[in-house]
User: Fold these one by one.
Assistant:
Number 1:
Amino acid sequence: MLAAMAYETLLTDLQDGIFTLTLHRPDRLNAFTSTMMDEYLHVLDEIDANDDVRVVVVTGSGRAFCAGADLGGGGETFVSEGDGASGAPTVPRDGGGRVTLRIFDCKKPLIAAINGPAVGVGITQTLPMDVRLASERAKMGFVFARRGIVPEACSSWFLPRVVGISKAMEWVATGRVFGAEEAHAAGLVSELLPHDELLPRARTLAAEIAENTSAVSVALSRQMLWKMLGADHPMEAHRIDSRGIDFMGRSPDAREGVESFLEKRPARFSMRASRDMPDYFPWWKERAFADGD
């Protein structure tokens, strides 16, 4: 079972359709490493393949959510090998970006329960998650300019779409750390909660999804909303809406959704996101990092 698999930097738990993914390097404030990246990518693949997982809650172990990149390597922390096996110059891929792009394409909704400090990749990894909740103890920071680098994890695309370009640029240009109240006021997080109420609220929201919705409807809807953020015209949405309504309208889940409503009973949806997606999914063109990748 996916929930029983052991990881070095992550804890996993699956109950009642809710998969809790806990970043687990508490002695390093859950700082991000290449091992964490590899394990994150692996568990996201497992989440998509496992129909028992309906929704994901991501949080941190101990007092932090994620303190950003592990700086234990000192001044060489951000140095990467730039040459491929052939000796030709290459641009190494940003690890945080690999994770956020995989989250972006995930079939399952993700809820970030930000329980403490989340800076650098600690906060940018949450941007493609669908809901961000924060403890009153949480602090955030897009601190890249203070470390002599630039925003990563595709945050130059995600952050302005979440909070607008002016607030995004203010946070990135100053690199300052700010509190959960400011994050809530700017819309970076949708709810600000007493610390002890954070995970219960995340699980209540997750249960609302897991218990009442069609897995295929949610998977399609998640990608429709995210992918349309980059659309040039509403006609693009109309085209994919029409395909989705046609496919789902003929499906057993649509029949069950209507009949359960008319009969005033809980719905029992039977379609599985791992096997019952329409043949046009994924409809967006796959984009490689570079020619030949």
Note: The two ends are 32 Å apart (CA to CA).
Number 2:
Amino acid sequence: MSQAVAQARTVGSSLFSSDAVKKAVDTIVDEVAAASAKLTGVRGPIEGLEQPYEDSLKKLGEQRGRPLYYPYVGSGAGNGFYVELADGSVKIDMVGGIGYTPLGHAHPELIRAAVTASMEDNLKHGHLQATGALFEFSDKLLTLAQRKSKLAHIFVSAGGALANENAIKICYQKHAPASRVIAFSHCFMGRTVTMAQIGDAAGNRQGVPLSTQVDYMDFWNAAEADRVGQQAHIDAACRKLQEYIDRYPRQHACFIFELVQGEGGFVTAPREYFVALMELCRKNSIAVWADEIQSFNRTTELFAFEMLDLGEYIDVLTVGKATQACATLYTADYNPKPSLLSGTFTGATPEFAVGKRVLEILEASDLYGPGGMAAKHHKAFRDQVGALKAKHRDWFPDLPCGIAGGVGGMMRFTPFGGDKEKVGKATKVLFEEGLVTFYNGHGPYHIRFLPPLAVMSLEDWPTVFEVVERGLARVAAG
């Protein structure tokens, strides 16, 4: 570096390269690590904190108009898959708020990124004014997506539903005046007015005027494919799609593909199934939109479209949760006209710094590929479910979908025949026993795991399932 360039540093670059600042950040990271190390196992509340905690939960319920699903208010401390609540209890977190903690709690590299980024002049970024953190995050995510796709551009937004809103606007504009949308049954798209209409859950759109025209396709059904043959099952799906296309010619703007259904029960399909439907979309000028808000980083590749080798077909992609900030990516052909995409907020500075670091750590990890740790963890999970069934056969009636499913870090198991009431009760009882989970599916219902595989070892699974067994025993006993 020349002397002139060295002297032409900004105040900002001088601040962030300051030895004093680096030392202060190191001190904070070390303090967090020392505190986190104290959390090494499940425990109950600390005496004296229970009543204040109950009082705060009651107040929260009054503020919201209904109680929290779980009595969960974090203390701000955690360690890997352990998280401490404000009553001093410690839980094993197997769902990460539905997937936004891919590296668990209090990961030192993420603490470092967040603390450093928090020193910027403003917490929030917007599309009109932003610092380099937004563009560095965007560049990293887009570069990773471009490895096996034709995606050329990225637009960051403040949430997954907003990323989906931007995606549908891009598709509408490209294929105007087409106004219809194709989606899979049991899909979930978010809770904005438009996304609630597309999502296949009536309860999420009660009282919402239905202005979005949606045609639903049945998702891949493994049992039916076994019965009639895989190709016959694919041919039937293509006939149904063609039926919609013939009924509403040139009226479909996009087909939304959840390559692994999240709320639908962690089900996926063979590549050939998706290819056949995507080819039909391409032939009829219907945008192929892959929704990876939940599946990103949780399959056996970083992107589900990479796992299924579908990148050449993707026109629009939405990503979120694990990335911290959410984004809509699209090919050059789908680059929208000015003013279609905008927004005051893109997110907070630490989100971009932490998101970029998450992407770097995941990229360098040993999670992905046929022999990667994601596949090994998934096998260990299924082995634990199988062992539990062998020990308690009455808890696990046989089902066409099997008692364990998913792919990679998207894991589900199905006790009590998938009965909605019992599965819902099981999630609450497991929480009481020290395990944070959630449910998915729409009959049968499943218990859902989204574990932080990057910070877990295979030896952790027996510890998790000790709690599972205790909780299910309570539910089985009524």
Note: DSSP finds 17 helices and 17 strands in the chain.
Number 3:
Amino acid sequence: MHSSIRIPLSITLALSLFSGCAPQPAPQKQVTIDSTLPVPSLNGYLADITSAAFEWKPVDDPRVSGYYIYRDTPGGEDAKLHRIATVDSRYATHYVDNDLRPNTHYQYRFSTFTGSGSESVGSETMLVATQPMIAPVSFFQSVGNMPRSAKLLWRPHPNAKISGYAIERQNVNDQKWSTIATVTGRLNAEFIDRDLKDGQVYHYRIRALSFDNLSTEPSEMAKVVTKPLPPEIKNITATNNLPRAITLSWEPSQISDLSHYNIYRSTSPKGIFDYHVKIDKTAFTDMITEDGKFYFYKVTAVDKDGLESPMTPIAVQGSTLSKPQTPIAYDGKIVNGAAELQWKNNDLRTVSFTVVKTTKTSWISRESVDINNITGTNFRDTDIKPGTQYEYQVVSVDTNGIRSVPTAAIELSYEAK
């Protein structure tokens, strides 16, 4: 085989080469070589990265029906040239071979054929070299420690054939690469990947894309670690001895960009914890209107990016101060025109007692009055009237003014003699 001399094409020729249509290869048939048929005379070729365009001089011989194109397959077991295409018109003078390998040498030969199946002698073998593939993106880096996102930066590709970029990310589970986004425009140089997991490692790379749908080799890999969640809050405590209040306290979060704390509350340790309050201190007093009320609490830290620490698996229990215990051994009777009551104290918290006196003024109406600050365990009521019915109850009172559940009522009636 002999390589032909490549003849430079004009700019007009170059445009016509790449705008011409490339007929599909036809099945190869057994032909008869006719040495009288004209042999195609190649003007030259233009090679790109994955294609090669050819031009030849027109053939005027009316016997010619078209042209056969032969090519080898570099790297294959068969080094021979095989027919790859048929141009079914003797008036055609251009052909484009696509889907070639970059930076590869190919051999081509052309012939003419007739409608009866005869074929000319082949042209001189032309050696064609495709251009090297466009270089990968040379500079690619990442910005980590961002909340649930990763920022990727690269240097715009200098090749004007580049139309954009494909961003690839490696799957954490199977280590496979997949395209997650396409950035249009050669001069673009940034992409932010969102909705990532907290404190997770991600690997990225980038490919440059050409206007003719070529993809470069990937860039160097860039590693990203997303910002982790703030750590759990430690040593949360809750009081159980305050009147109608529960005070929470905890260790300060050690993160440098703390925004605030969130407090969640539930009536059950395994129930749903509803958001209760936002606070920027490490203590909180929950004011409650009930005595002996139990609540369960969890506390989280929130950073300035809105990332919230996990809730602790075990909630802390707090309660308001319970009511004092009700007096016991309660008894009462009328003695010498007065109501005498007595009872026993059942709670060391008790500092005084209150007697609730109810007077039945009619069948349907009653009047009640509290007699407070009784320090002993008995009471004598001389303010009673003959023929009137009274009810008495006793309540324990602690130093906070919290009252116990009253005793059962004792009904007394003073009948004058």
Note: The helical segments are 11-19.
Number 4:
Amino acid sequence: MSSEGPDRLPGDRVPGDRDVWRIAAPMILSNVSVPLLGMVDTGVVGHLDNPSYLGGVAIGATIFGFLYTGFNFLRMGTTGIAAQRYGARDYDGLRVSLGQALITALAIAVLLLMLQGPIGNLALGIVGGDAEVTREAATYFWIRIWSAPGTLANYVLIGWFIGLQNARVPLAMFLTINLTNIVLDLFFVIGLGMKVDGVALASVIAEYTGLGVGLVYAARALRRHPGRWPAAKLLRLRQYGTFLAINGNLLVRTMALMFTLAFITAQGARMGNLVLAANAVLMQFQNLTAFGLDGFAHAAEALVGKAVGEGRREALVRAVKLALKWSLIFAGAFSLAYFVAGPLLVRILTGLPEVQETALRYLPWMILSPLVSVWSFLYDGVFVGATRSREMRDVMLVSTFAVFLPSWYLLQDLGNHGLWLAFLLFLASRGIGMHVIYRRRVLPAVP
């Protein structure tokens, strides 16, 4: 089978386990490659003669992690639209979904480059740090910002290929980006003697290298699905109404999620450095869970979107059941692994005895978390595929401002236990809310 994946499922059958894994497995592998890059970045600059280099890269990477995460709606919105066009065999629409998303990504990237001065100064001022570290972080920022067009275009291409039921190309793109970044890190810093500027430049070049791979495969995919490029739908702003509405809702939803995570960090800091450090360690458990469960959410996006495009309720129900089955299996495995090996993982993540002791005190919340968060991960994928971004936004806003914040207010006397309990209630609220809407609105809308 070529790396471009199969054309489509035969119309007379519903999705099976192989269809879920065909998308989930490459995306899980893609996710696993991301922390490897962070480890290499840290290892390369961590062996230089001045700790300010490490601090500068850490702050710079944090800024771009926050900045680019806010634009992840380009990936999610493109997936749902492309999957539905693919399911309907609307290959003109498939081109429109790609073209509109790339044009939007380019427009955002140009805006970021035009406003890089105020954005950089504001971000560096908020994050803070001593003068030497801030200077290195600024060096990183002014170079890395030029990756914006490539990074945002890659979001679009990855989402578009998932919509085509093809996770192999996103895997190829992730591996190209991360391996290129690693090789250039070593070449620029160790080989040429560069510092923070070498790490930032490696990231910029790697993003455009991955973009080149994605564009080559996109051209091949379009040749396999003949159609035309409707110029009016690409060049007239009023034709972007549906696309912008979907992605605008996803942006609000993402901002609410980022607020919740930032709130946890801020409240942990108010409880002292030990709690702040312990929560940072525990959040890695949540991130690890996301790496696994996201793969099945991506499978749900693609298969649900295709079923909606085909107008086949049976295929939709089957896709959701299969993605849920494997998500629950993995969630149970994560909880069991954290119960058995959680203390070992804490010791691997930090060598400070006080932080270890504090993290272990709150580890039971991380053991429960996969079983609670699995529902929100799964239904995020279902709603992305069904392009139900307005409902995603509404559930996230209710979960954040009507559940999480009030829960924390009522539970704050419990300290950090109350903070993690409020977070689990937030996750549960998202899962329950989307389940109700799925039953009442998503399913009845498909014949």
Note: The chain has two domains: 15-235, 241-447.
